[in-house]
């Protein structure tokens, strides 16, 4: 009997040799190489999108009042189907606990729980939107090679710039804290800056250039300080952009070839280069 | 008789040899190489701009009430002229159906239809603004070599980054969905988050840093979650920027070098290449 | 007698040899090489800043009501001084007409005219803020070598990307036109989209992610279309950023050295390189 | 006895040899190499975060009214602890005055002063948020090597682009000044543009794409001018982004290579250099 893993990536490489029902189920549910596996994934994709749509529609008061029963019934049908699928997954994997505690296992569970929870905690069915996260699974299983490669590139660029981004977030949080406290002192409660936390919220709204306009400076000094904060927000955005661009550029270059010429040592060759572009030596 | 194509690019290369009225019309209407062809294009450009302006003005209530008849008359004149032009195009091309179903053919039709449709569907004349799309045609015909090259460069950069952009849009939609549902649960109907779709609309307004301020969080937790969403929106914008910059940089580099190898004919060399990277021949 | 030019750059190279009062005035007023020329420029800089401040303060109702006479007197003093300076410039240059019609000559004139114009056109003294433009002159004369070089770099990058920027603006205007008309049809006058021009204004406010919130969609379809427009605005900003970054990078590189190695042909050397970094050959 | 410096960086290199109580205190308070020094820093970090939190909470009216005494007591405890720490720092350094006048010394003082000042200046305790700045010290002392390197990289990129950024700020301020005055003339006091300073504030809000919506154009011309300002703000943001990206790219490249030439000692080589660019020696 072959060793089976919940990790799809590994499973995709070493095809299951056994032919028990569990193996066949696993192939259909967890993979997308066989025709039935593909059909299952497409059906799941459609089901997830429909169930997210149903949850969204149910939250609209007019629809809930006119079609409440129908929408509730639909929700139970979807939850039933997803519960069956969750059960099937638990049965068909070799190590159910490992699956249940994996990221996807938890998402699968969270996607069905709120429907049951609603009896104890009213309104919690809105959390069913977590079902949208399940789309990630289908995305991954479908082995969209191109997309996965690009996503890994983006991810690598993010990871490479994590230190710079942490510093950037630290600077942003400090600015927001200082300006929030400053504006609380300058504007005061009568102008809507009712407390430092509220002022900090205002500073985030302003620095990020969102600018709701629910809280707004009224004093001359407050407007001067706001103008400085806005221009800072307008300029500071250049920093994460610069960081991501430089790292993405480096990640893209790293994904390319890096042979160096045995004759002149130049190393700035393209992927498909067979001769040094500077001296013509064969690489 | 020469083979005629609706495609201007091809037609521009193989000049029509025939001299029937249809050939001459085609030359004037579809091309811009002859003096009359140029005059026709400039006249069309002015007409289109004027007609778009007329549609815009007619939508202003005060103008419609005082100069309604004049503006309506002007609209009919423009529509008449464009209908004549559409007819002339249909007649002068070799394959009218192929033109009628092409992108430009459909835009030409859509640019005149609403005036007639208004008898059945009041208000539809606002759609006459589609006429603005016709400007694209003049733009293309005028063979603004520089602009076309630059536009192709931008287009190439866009196409090269399409996979990354799809991932980015997927991430943005997921964030907006999750935060929308979350805010619906946190803030509730009494604070303006009347349904999940409305909350998702709010999340788009906030993440994109537009921040209308028509819907605004009032609870403490809602403001904390909003602040996180804003800072995400502020930082995430770095990603498409980085993608486009890197791809544009690559596209620019690729466009800059056009030497081809005298030995093997390869033409994808870098700017500073002195030897063919495929066969080593000196360039 | 030497040929004199209003162009400071040229004048700076060929020092005036004559010693008449006109030459000395010219040296003091138009140049900044002599101690008196520097003092004149600094005094002018301070005067301009003070006069701009005075104009700003005069526009504040409370200050105008309490200190109206003082501020008006100050304005006349500044205008008097600037008129004297304008006269002095006219007299001290060789070709007064050429100066009067140059960019700086016109700005100098526009900076004093509104004070006189106010007798015919009330409120026009606010245009005195044009005086701020005069700061450019001081900036240029002070020959801030570094800044001029950097500004030229930025300017070169802008000029190199002008074609792409024109295309970008064309795309933005088309989007704004189409979405403006669409929202006028969808939302209608009762929701604040009173005419197509107003809707276009709204589309600009939304696409540029400013989001005042004075006009806001209320229908479901209008909000969906708005969300699309916002996400477009959020993503499209990557394009000008990418363009400027690539061109600025190219301009920076072009400002550096571009010698190529006589032995291996590599050309990616630094400014201060004396030997090829790939093969060690002397450059 | 060894020479002691308040500068932690220097102090870290030349370990204090003496073993008096002052040396031991200095080691614990100013450094983080010993177990006790680390514990002190972590405790300080927690204390600072808690005290900032306390100040924020005290500003909330409801909490102040219900738990006012407790919060006030907590504030005094924190201030007492920080005063003790300030005293300990003053005693344990060799040159107390130099420390007291250093950046960190001043921040340490400012972090405790407001509590005492509140008897003379009500509301000044909000300034206690300055305590957040003290986090910088812990950050620095903890010698988070990676972060410090990355921060220096960001700092270097900023410093290299300072000239371009000054030009950019100058351009932004000019735009804001001119458009502010223009809108004051166009819209006037009846539409909320009550003075030129207020109009300039509005121009900053608009150009930075914050868009509060508290002041909004109402006239047709005012909206046209606003639309131009918005599109300028939307496009101009590309400039600082481009600047930072190019400089960050250069700084990253410079930081990546650290080989030094065995012959002439030069160390400013590129990543792909195989020969010293100054003397040609093989690296």
UniProtKB/TrEMBL annotation, chains A, B, C, D:
<dbReference type="InterPro" id="IPR005821">
    <property type="entry name" value="Ion_trans_dom"/>
</dbReference>
<keyword id="KW-0630">Potassium</keyword>
<dbReference type="InterPro" id="IPR028325">
    <property type="entry name" value="VG_K_chnl"/>
</dbReference>
<keyword id="KW-0472">Membrane</keyword>
<keyword id="KW-0633">Potassium transport</keyword>
<feature type="transmembrane region" description="Helical">
    <location>
        <begin position="192"/>
        <end position="212"/>
    </location>
</feature>
<protein>
    <submittedName>
        <fullName>Ion transporter</fullName>
    </submittedName>
</protein>
<keyword id="KW-0631">Potassium channel</keyword>
<keyword id="KW-0406">Ion transport</keyword>
<dbReference type="GO" id="GO:0001508">
    <property type="term" value="P:action potential"/>
</dbReference>
<feature type="transmembrane region" description="Helical">
    <location>
        <begin position="42"/>
        <end position="61"/>
    </location>
</feature>
<feature type="transmembrane region" description="Helical">
    <location>
        <begin position="224"/>
        <end position="243"/>
    </location>
</feature>
<feature type="transmembrane region" description="Helical">
    <location>
        <begin position="111"/>
        <end position="133"/>
    </location>
</feature>
<feature type="transmembrane region" description="Helical">
    <location>
        <begin position="165"/>
        <end position="186"/>
    </location>
</feature>
<dbReference type="GO" id="GO:0005249">
    <property type="term" value="F:voltage-gated potassium channel activity"/>
</dbReference>
<keyword id="KW-0407">Ion channel</keyword>
<feature type="transmembrane region" description="Helical">
    <location>
        <begin position="73"/>
        <end position="91"/>
    </location>
</feature>
<dbReference type="Pfam" id="PF00520">
    <property type="entry name" value="Ion_trans"/>
</dbReference>
<dbReference type="GO" id="GO:0008076">
    <property type="term" value="C:voltage-gated potassium channel complex"/>
</dbReference>
<keyword id="KW-0812">Transmembrane</keyword>
<keyword id="KW-0813">Transport</keyword>
<feature type="domain" description="Ion transport">
    <location>
        <begin position="39"/>
        <end position="254"/>
    </location>
</feature>
<keyword id="KW-1133">Transmembrane helix</keyword>
